[in-house]
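Teaching assistant's notes for section 4

Start the section by putting this record on the projector. Ask students to predict, before seeing the second block, whether Acetolactate synthase small subunit will look compact or extended. Collect guesses on the board.
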Amino acid sequence: MRHTISILLQNEAGALARVAGLFASRGYNIESLTVAATHDEDMSRLTLVVFGDDAVVEQIIKQSAKLVDVIEIGELTRKVHVERELLVARVEAGGDAVDTCLGRFGGRLLQREGGQSVVEYTGRADEVDAFLDALRLAGDVADHARSGIAAIERPLVAA
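Reveal the predicted structure now:
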């Protein structure tokens, strides 16, 4: 099963390595990992995605919570949350084909020179996959970079 885990940790050297090390030591490949400072410069938010057994991932989360650097940790998988990923791609194709793809998905043209376009798209991971597939049909995707998933729990709506 796919697990999305959000961690607030102290913004210190080595904190990321210690958390990621717990997952790696259990043989879990981290599919996506993003980390950046929060509104508080002393804290960073780390979002990671792993595929694995529920019980083992739960155990790793409990062990991660014991690390000195970890302020808060939680699994977002079964909670109502928002997640987004950024794709930046360089495409070799006619402008019309790329423009059609951008219009259909709501992507954005960043640069066009000669027969190459640099585009961006932001969405859920499955939407990014679909956009990338459509770009490949429009032309030759010469290169691309994905940011990894950033996620946050949605606020609860009072009834």
